[in-house]
Amino acid sequence: MEPNKTKEISAQMDTMQEQLQTMLSQLEALNAAWGELVINNQDLQTENHYLRERVQALSEELNQSEQATHKEETPGMSPALQNLWNIYEDGYHICNISYGQRRQKEDCVFCLKLLDREEVH
What is the pLDDT of residues 33-47, one digit of tens each? Predict the structure, then answer.
């Protein structure tokens, strides 16, 4: 073989070896990143599962609470009147004069007239 051809083949082999080493280091970096992603994914799935269970438990508690509230509602009162009563009890006006405004601690005559408090209790 010719000496120039030997040098050329040797140079090509050196270049290829450098490229392979670069590719190997890139592959190792990708492999490490992949491992982190897999662990992160597993952590997120576990947390998601826990949160779904917690949401379901809270929803069940809320449903039970709502059922208990419905049992406590005044019998014979329409749902609309009950809603108005609840808004009034939460401290807001339901009368047409001050509707939606925060009530002071005293009762509002107009709101009570609307509710006709004597029939409620």
Answer: 999 999 999 999 999
For 63, list phi and psi in degrees, rounded to 5. Answer: -60, -40
pTM of full prediction above 0.85 = no
Measured CA to CA in angstroms, residue 60 lies from 24, 50, 53, 64, 109 at distances of 54, 15, 11, 6, 39
Beta-bridge partners for 102: 92
Round to whole Å and give the CA distance between 74 and 60: 24
C-alpha 57/C-alpha 111 separation (Å) is 38
What residues form DSSP beta bridges with 92? Answer: 102
Residue 116 · residue 110 · CB < 8 Å = no
pLDDT tens for 54-82 read 989 888 888 887 776 655 555 667 788 88
Own/partner long-range contacts of 79-86 (Cβ < 8 Å, ≥24 apart): 81/115, 81/120, 84/114, 84/115, 85/115, 85/120
Q: Report residue 23 CA to chain centroid gap.
A: 42
